[in-house]
Design goal:
Helix content: 40-55%
Keywords: Cell membrane, Membrane, Transmembrane, Transmembrane helix
Largest sheet: 11 strands, mixed
CATH topology of the largest domain: Rossmann fold
Structural class: alpha/beta
InterPro entries: P-loop_NTPase, T4SS-coupling_protein, TraG-D_C
Protein name: TraD/TraG TraM recognition site domain-containing protein
Number of domains: 3
Distance between the termini: 116 Å
Subcellular location: Cell membrane
Radius of gyration: 34 Å
Shape: elongated
Membrane topology: Multi-pass membrane protein
Strand content: 5-15%
């Protein structure tokens, strides 16, 4: 048998020698990667300089000489021309390319990296009614001012929602759609929906918000001031805005229906939907409505209602109601006042709590007649290109009631104006109800959704969750709003498993091909079958990337959108500068107010 040879030892290679060799190789490779493109650019730039200055011919490709010995290639070309051609011009080109690449990457990152559409969701032909051609034709049919226009600007056709994921197709909601957006904080609801809608609005704009600095208020204030007047109602000093307007909430309360609506705003701002049907709440709302009706018809300020609430025995509202022909209402109020003292006191105390904000002189000043500032009139606003900012804090109680009442008055006035104008406002009114469940609790907003769009009044109600809407309007009310909304937008941050599963079922299933292989005595066989699978399961909806959103449009397949934040659009630098100035002005007003208060305290 052959004797096995002993194993030969491998050459001795120490780790340090191997690492040094790898480093040298990488350095050499890196030098080549850098030097070859630079040499090529220097050669190209030098040739361009020689040809343009007519001092030489096109030199052969020698990138090393172009970098180190340009006099060998272009002996008659001046030093300055070669410096510009070989280094300065290529440097500018490289810097420009780097900036463009950085912007592309920033845009891609801001859109959540969503480039490819999800398999099974809508393609461009599935949502054609929301794309440029169809939405433009629809706008011409809806708006008489555009009927004979040869070219229509995109902003005149509808509100931009984003791009269809993976494409450049802009998706817009038309000016007869009504929308609900459910998006968690910092998911793009303000930067990608509210602000772009305000900036592009062709007519009047209404915005409700609970923030000012760094939000839609500061981002749009200067831009909207260039197209019309800006009105700011800031009773709780969110933006520390100077009071340069006042609004009369009793202007629409001269009828029993209007007075009931006004009282309903104070009720909704104070209690949730589940508590609005009990005896004390309904009785307090009725008393408030009766007192509002009396004050409105006697042309009194709304603050007189608080005096009447403090003294139920005051017969002034009873006499006023009778004098203006509201005998049945006066009888109802008289029955409450002369009823059992325990019941009367409970009703009046509940009403006083609902309207407590009117005791605050700073809040009341915004809704009582003033001689030194102009009055905001909804009838003039709805036919203008003005902007109304309604600001209130979360849980603002009665202050949010004033905000909701003003927003409701504007939309109701717009409805009446649309009827006088032939059925539809042109240009339309855009109502951005941001944080609607906190600062704009309009009781019958779900019912209004069924007809606002057909009047050229386009509401966009923005909520943080579906349950937030249920808390304000109840299960039936929120379901009614969801069903009536022709556009539904779902952003990232949906953590409600039931709602996520509901959305998943609405998106639907698609066929997935499954291949199986079996081995038997007769051999190997392969079979292909189809099975149904959720297009987007609930966990994928919960993990939806920031910058992406789901779109549910009536009668169309669900689509994935890539949002378009305002700060990535043309003109963003100017808007950012204006927003920064507005934010600094808010800070300055807050500091000045603090200093003034300190001086007052010291003097006292």
């Amino acid at each position: 048998m052959p004797v096995p040879l002993p194993e030969q030892p491998l050459p001795n290679r120490t780790p340090s020698t191997s690492d040094a060799t790898d480093i040298l190789f990488k350095l050499l490779l890196g030098a080549l990667v850098v030097a070859v493109p630079l040499g090529s650019l220097a050669w190209l730039g030098g040739n361009c300089a020689a040809v343009l200055t007519r001092s030489g011919r096109w030199a052969p490709y020698r990138p090393a000489d172009a970098l180190l010995h340009p006099d060998l290639l272009w002996p008659a070309t001046g030093h300055t021309a070669l410096l510009v051609g070989r280094f300065i011009a290529p440097g500018i080109l490289l810097a420009t390319a780097a900036v463009l690449a950085a912007r592309w990457w920033t845009r891609r990152s801001a859109s959540g990296g969503q480039k490819k559409p999800v398999k099974g969701m809508a393609k461009a032909n599935d949502i054609e009614p929301l794309l440029a051609k169809a939405i433009t034709a629809k706008a011409k049919s809806l708006r008489p001012s555009l009927k004979h226009a040869s070219k229509v600007a995109p902003n005149d056709t509808g509100i931009l929602l984003g791009n269809l994921a993976g494409t450049r197709h802009e998706v817009r909601m038309g000016y007869e759609d009504v929308a609900v957006a459910i998006m968690a904080p910092r998911s793009g609801k303000t930067t990608s929906l509210a602000i772009p809608a305000i900036l592009s609005a062709p007519g009047p704009v209404l915005l409700t918000s609970n923030k000012a600095a760094g939000d839609a208020f500061t981002a749009t204030l200067a831009a909207r001031a260039r197209v019309g007047r800006t009105w700011t109602m800031d009773p709780q000093q969110i933006a520390h805005a100077l009071r340069v307007m006042w609004w009369d909430p009793l202007a629409d309360a001269t009828t029993l229906e209007g007075a009931n609506r006004l009282a309903g705003h104070f009720l909704a701002a104070s209690v949730d939907a589940s508590q609005q049907g009990d005896f004390w709440s309904k009785a307090a709302q009725n008393v408030l409505a009766q007192l509002f009706l009396a004050a409105a018809n006697d042309r009194r300020p709304i603050t007189d209602v608080m005096r009447w609430l403090a003294f139920p025995a005051d017969r002034t509202p009873l006499d006023t109601l009778r004098d203006h022909g509201f005998h049945a209402v006066a009888s109802q109020l008289k029955g409450t006042v002369e009823g059992p003292p325990e019941t009367r006191d409970g009703i009046y105390e509940t009403a006083r709590q609902y309207a407590a904000c009117l005791l605050n002189a700073e809040i009341a000043a915004w809704v009582t007649p003033q001689t030194d500032v102009p009055q905001f009139k909804p009838s003039e606003f709805v036919t203008s290109r003005d902007t109304l900012y309604l600001l209130s804090k979360d849980g603002g109680g009665g202050a949010s009631a004033v905000i909701a009442a003003c927003a409701d008055s504007v939309m109701r006035t717009a409805t009446a104006e649309a009827e006088r104008a032939g059925g539809r406002l042109d240009p339309p009114l855009i109502a951005i109800l941001d944080e609607a469940a906190n600062v704009c609790k309009i009781q019958d907003l779900p019912d209004l959704y069924s007809h606002l769009g057909s009047r050229g009044i386009i509401p966009l109600t923005i909520l943080q969750s579906y349950r937030q809407g249920q808390k304000v309007w109840g299960d039936a009310g929120m379901d009614a709003m969801w069903s009536a909304a022709t556009i539904k937008i779902i952003g990232s941050g949906i953590d409600d498993p039931d709602f996520a599963d509901k959305l998943s079922r609405l998106i639907g299933d698609h066929d997935v091909e499954t291949t199986s292989t079996s081995i038997s005595d007769s051999g190997k066989s392969t079979s292909v079958s189809m099975r149904q699978q959720r297009i987007l399961p609930a966990d994928a909806i919960r993990a939806l990337a920031k910058g992406s959103a789901l779109l549910f449009a009536t009668g169309l397949r669900a689509a994935m959108l890539t949002l378009r934040p305002w700060y990535l659009e043309p003109g963003a630098d100017d808007l950012s500068a204006a927003s920064a100035r507005a934010s600094r002005a808010i800070t300055a007003r807050a500091i000045n107010k603090t200093l003034t208060q300190d001086d007052f305290d010291q003097a006292a």
